[in-house]
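Box 4.2: Ligand-aware structure prediction
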Amino acid sequence: MKIVVLVKYVPEPTATWKFAPDLTVDRAGVEGRLSELDEYAVEQAAQLAEKGVASEVVFLTVGPAKATEGLRKALAIGGNTAVHVVDDAIHGSCALGTSLVLAKALEKTGYDLILTGMASTDAELSIVPQMVADRLGINQGTFAGELSVDGSSVTIRRDTDVATERVTIALPAIVSVTDQTGEARYPAFKAIMGAKKKPITTMSLADLGLSADQVGWAAASTKVVDVAPTPARTAGTIITDDGTGGSQVADFLADRGFI
Ligand SMILES: Cc1cc2nc3c(=O)[nH]c(=O)nc-3n(C[C@H](O)[C@H](O)[C@H](O)COP(=O)(O)OP(=O)(O)OC[C@H]3O[C@@H](n4cnc5c(N)ncnc54)[C@H](O)[C@@H]3O)c2cc1C
């Protein structure tokens, strides 16, 4: 069985992000990392390979040149090879554009099971896996907290607010996993060095039969129109209880519409 894991290289959440004049993230000018939520999918694929369920694990990313670092991190956790779709024309793509590029690349790699994170840690749309499923015309399972695979299907556990569901999905399928599946292992030095020797294939839009006008900022169906830093937290209000503390608290809450 061939598993392809979709992994995104994102700005480090704790770094200070900079934005380009077109309001896209300046990904070259900020420290990046493999999206933490994608590490859970990488770990699941590595475990399925160790159990002998997967004969091949491929990591696939669409991102700038630096995204290779994210693929190396994934390859240190497990897997055999990686594919990096990199092309200047992809810059600024919306989710529709990103899913188009991913779907075309998946047609090239082939797959039985596609694993993804539950969301990226930058844009957090949580929609790309569903769009890829639709483009490929395959089954999808979302927010798996646990998964097991047999020859022809994947069974997942989904925890919702009102119930826990067990869902069996016929392969080929795409499944997004949550942090409930278990943390990714911390790769040992030997695994990090070994990952440097694993092959990464680079593909361009032309390799995928796509043209620049189908993706990128100009073709995006949605555009960020404004970006502003989150206001710094203001100091709290300290109420000294001089006998009127209770009513001061009530007034404070009433002023803000809480009571
Ligand atoms: C500051 C900022 C500005 C943006 N501006 C715009 C804009 O103007 N217009 C617009 O439409 N969108 C914009 N985006 C969204 C951006 O295009 C998204 O990153 C992209 O659409 C993918 O959506 P997502 O990251 O929310 O993925 P999600 O749907 O949250 O991702 C779910 C899973 O899909 C997989 N995945 C997602 N992306 C990739 C990838 N590139 N490579 C491999 N796997 C992947 C991963 O497994 C991930 O866990 C902006 C994002 C940011 C942070």
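In the box above, the bound molecule is flavin-adenine dinucleotide. The first helix runs from residue 36 to 50.
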